[in-house]
Design brief:
- By secondary structure, the chain is mainly α.
- The protein contains 5 helices and no strands.
Amino acid sequence: MVDSLKPFRCALDGIVDAISTQRHLRIHGVVAGLVALLGVLLGLPYTDLLLLLMAIALVVITELLNTAVELTVDLTSPVFHPIARRAKDIAAGAVLIAALASAAVGIIILAPPLFRAFVASPLSAKSAMLAVIAIGLGASIFTALLPRRFGQDPSSESVPRRR
């Protein structure tokens, strides 16, 4: 029984490690939570909630794979190598494509009912709550686009790219 649980424990350890060391993964988590909350509060049908869940999972999976590629490249190529850079850039490109596609799915699913809720009762408590969540969502995405602060502990992220 103990041996059959070890792979799950290793997988959970990997997820926890990635969340604790990767800033963008933490931001993806906040965005995912806000999107899910918006979906539930808007009373979306299960199929739309499922599509949002799949989009969120796609971004998290590609971010985890990108982290694994970066760590592997850093381990095997401690000095600059153009192929190592290409591997990291390609993995980062996968995350970008997943994030853009997921953002499009989120906008297509969430924008119409959100707009209808604001138009139907703009001064209601529900509209105010939805507005706060939407602003939090926008702020989280904006935060993800900001460069890292100077002086941040570099050991929490993978080795920066040397060009």
